[in-house]
Amino acid sequence: MTAVGIDAIEIWTGKLALDLAETFAPAKDDNPEKYTKGLGLRASSFPDTYEDIVTMGANAAKRLMDRKGLEPDDIGRIDVATESAFDNSKPVSTYIAGCLEDVYDGDFHHANKGERKFACVAGTQSIDDAYNWIKAGRNRGRAALVIATDTALYARGDPGEATQGAGAVAMLVDEDPNVVELSTHQGYGSADETDFLKPNQQFPSVDGKRSVQVYLARMREALEDFESVAGRTHPDDYAYIPFHTPFPGMVRKAALLGFRHMTRDTEVEDGLADEIGRQPRETDFEDWDAYEGAIREYMDALKETDTYDTWYARAIDPTLTLSRQVGNWYTGSVHVARASALKTAAETGRALSGEKLLLGSYGSGAQAEIHSETVAEGWREEVEALDIDEQLSRRYDLSFEEYGRVHDAHNHEKERELEEFTVPGGEFVFTGWGRMNERT
Ligand code: CAA
Q1: pTM of the prediction?
Q2: Nearest partner of 376 among 2, 1, 5, judged by Cα
Q3: Fewest CB within a 10 Å sphere: which of 165, 261, 379, 398?
Q4: What are the CA-CA distances from residue 22 to residues 25, 32, 397, 412 (Å)?
Q5: Residue 335: is its pLDDT beyond 90?
Q6: Whose CA is nearest to atom 11 of ligand 1?
Q7: Which mutation among 34, 214, 335 tests ligand 1's pocket best, with the greatest number of atoms within 8 A of CB?
Q8: Please, which pLDDT band fits residue 436 given cuts at 50, 70 and 90?
Q9: Ligand 1 center to residue 212 CA distance, Å?
Q10: 281 CA to centre of ligand 1 in angstroms
Q11: Which residues on adjacent β-strands are paired with residue 397?
Q12: What is the pLDDT of residues 103-162, one digit of tens each?
């Protein structure tokens, strides 16, 4: 069976940065540690006024195609995952293909294009679609370009304002992949939920506290469903577990829940029994509330143990390095988390080929997907080619007052003349609604 998976990744960050500790917290009269420790975020990426989901996606895709020496004829499918689309009919992939056709000799006339929507999980769903298309033998030797691109902006004053972000991740899905091989092991947790909605509106209506609970409930269901396919999971089976990361504090909660679930009835639970007792069993309790209370108590004790701490530092913390600096990228977020883990492994000289990753993707509305991947032979070279550190260090640091103007500019005010904070060079830029983006 031919291996199919992610062959290459490129990341494009919005070119502006809002420092949460030094700029946002003082302006809100908040303790900076609410953001740095509580949410676990240092800064958010923002798009400059000449950037949008099309330019960021096209710029990431162009870098990927150039680095891999690809022409449009090599691509049989372009799927864009986004929850920031501005057109209810024409998919963002057509706008991006148009940009790319301006700079390559060939065209994408025989490529299938689409737009995937299910909040943040749509990026992973697009990868799944590309995998299925190749496995079905419908790709005619061509690869799929998957682009996850979002401007994750909340209304001013919304609690979500601290978790904003903007950027794009372009991924090439192909046979004999260099980065990760996908597996058929997947699990879903899905339910009709209304904690995060954008019905024909620019900024989401969010019940933030409930959204955290919904994330955890769907992720637990997805893990159980995954185990029904793949068998019992053990935390040591996976080198890294990248989760959808709206903010690292969310992942802290998901990781603890996952660790408890994975270690029940294992030697890890036995080893911890003297220190924190055994995991509560539902059958030991007369009512659900008492059982839940006991679980909470167990988890509070678990997170203080060296066993948990060591596992978290190895398998989870390295997935959060980029997210801390860029905030939530919605559809791109879990793919940034994977890149972050692989980048850490490359930087620390860790051997990873053949090791497994467990990905926890999530989209509000709500659906979680857990799937496993195997790291491929060529991962190190691909990850070392990323220039995300340079991009991050080149970002323009916004003052709070400038942040307000940029936020307004992205609130559908793009038709008027807008100030720019950085100078574009050799990239696609926004030139107006409905008009083709041009390369400077
Ligand atoms: N020092 C250390 N920690 C502090 C602190 C301080 N001085 N002050 C507060 N904190 C901690 C709090 O205890 C809390 O941690 P815990 O949750 O572990 O208790 C954390 O910082 C955040 O503080 P608050 O809960 O008071 O923050 P908030 O209510 O202002 O906002 C939020 C939190 C509701 C999640 C908000 O950021 C939000 O609405 N975000 C958008 C929605 C979201 O991201 N939801 C996540 C799940 S849905 C999803 O994942 C899809 C998606 O991409 C949107």
Answers
A1: 0.97
A2: 5
A3: 261
A4: 6, 7, 11, 28
A5: yes
A6: 38
A7: 34
A8: low
A9: 8
A10: 29
A11: 17
A12: 999 999 999 999 999 999 999 999 999 999 999 999 999 999 999 999 999 999 999 999
Has domain 4-439 been given CATH number 1.20.81.30? no
Q: How far is the CA of 423 from the centre of ligand 1 (A)?
A: 34
Q: Is 393 exposed, middle or buried (0-12, 13-18, 19+ CB in 10 A)?
A: exposed
- pLDDT given at position 1: 77
State residue 412's pLDDT score: 64
Cα–Cα distance, 67 to 389 (Å, whole number) = 17
Q: Which two tokens stand for residue 269?
A: 């639970």
Q: Which residues pair with 146 in a beta bridge?
A: 79, 171
Residues in the ligand 1 pocket, defined by CB under 6 Å: 31, 33-34, 37-39, 120, 159-160, 162-163, 196, 206, 208-209, 211-212, 215, 244, 246, 249-250, 328, 330, 362, 364
* CA angle, residues 4, 123, 193, in degrees to nearest 5: 130
Q: Which two tokens stand for residue 128?
A: 């799944």
The answer to whether the beta carbons of residues 123 and 79 sit under 8 Å apart is no
Give the DSSP per-residue string, 298-318: HHHHHTTSHHHHHHHHHHTGG
Distance CA 320, CA 133 (A): 31
